[in-house]
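Appendix B: complex inputs.
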Amino acid sequence: MGAGGGLSLSDLVLSIADNKQMLGLRYAEWATRAPSLEADIAAAAMGLDDLGHSRVLYGCLEPLGADPRGPERESDAASLRNLAYFDEPWTEWSQFVAANAVLDSAFTAMIDACVGGSVEVLQHRLRKMLMEERYHFLHGRSWLRSGIESGPLDRAWREAIEWFGPPDGETEALHREGKLSMGPTELRFHLEEQLEMKPSHVSIDWNKWDPIRRRGGPGAVDHHTFGMLRGLEEKKYAPPSAAKQTAS
Amino acid sequence: MSGSTYKRVSGEAVEYEVFARKARIDPLHLVGSVVAPDADLAMAYARATYDEERWCEMAIVRKDDVIRLWAPGEA
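Resulting structure:
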């Protein structure tokens, strides 16, 4: 949180980074399960892109002056700031497409707002992401147009709007300060315009919204994924000698 | 299926040829192909599949739009 108790730009950047990291991991899980070889390759490439973007975003926290990451991130999966959409691996291609079209584009809209804002480190470091994200958008929109189930799509829209934040909240305050070139209302409009669609009726109880995790409900990333993020999964495959070295 | 009748494209998908070059002075050359139902998805697939080099330009064209003057063995 910011010095005055409000949401800081660092909190927002950490949220983008955590979500991009999880999006990248979930994309990568589909690298051998997508409907075609081309879609497999695209899933792998987009996964790598988003994991790379998350690294750049984490690297922006120090120059921003206040790194909100605490030690609890090593032990408590619920301290990560990912949306509920990424808590569990996706079981349906529709979930992949909805995340690709709606959530990935929502994160890009926020990055666009950072690049267009007044903070130099974000202006410079995040610009290249917008070029790479163009192809994620084309991929997501094209698959979306081919038609997917409404369940994942409605959920992705709802979580995207929640993630933008309340219309008069602290994200809007960052917009008014000039640190972001768009606030929640403009971000939603931008997303609707890009995807050429509006979500089904979305009613959000902002009293239940967590401003740090930018989501409406509790929950956390699954145990296996959390272990992988902390490097614990790969230790299972280390030879016994390496395990001894680690222990000593 | 014989090589002459094999068709990679099925349904409404279309085959696109992918061209790229590394420097402005180089000519565009064929680096491969992708199959997609529309040009947007073909662009995304081309970029994902053939982005291993630092191309300064990449372009796609529908294979059906290429006008062949002659084929192998016809010259």
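The interface with chain B takes residues 36, 38-39, 41-42, 44-46, 135-136, 138-139, 141-143, 145-146 of chain A (CB under 8 Å).
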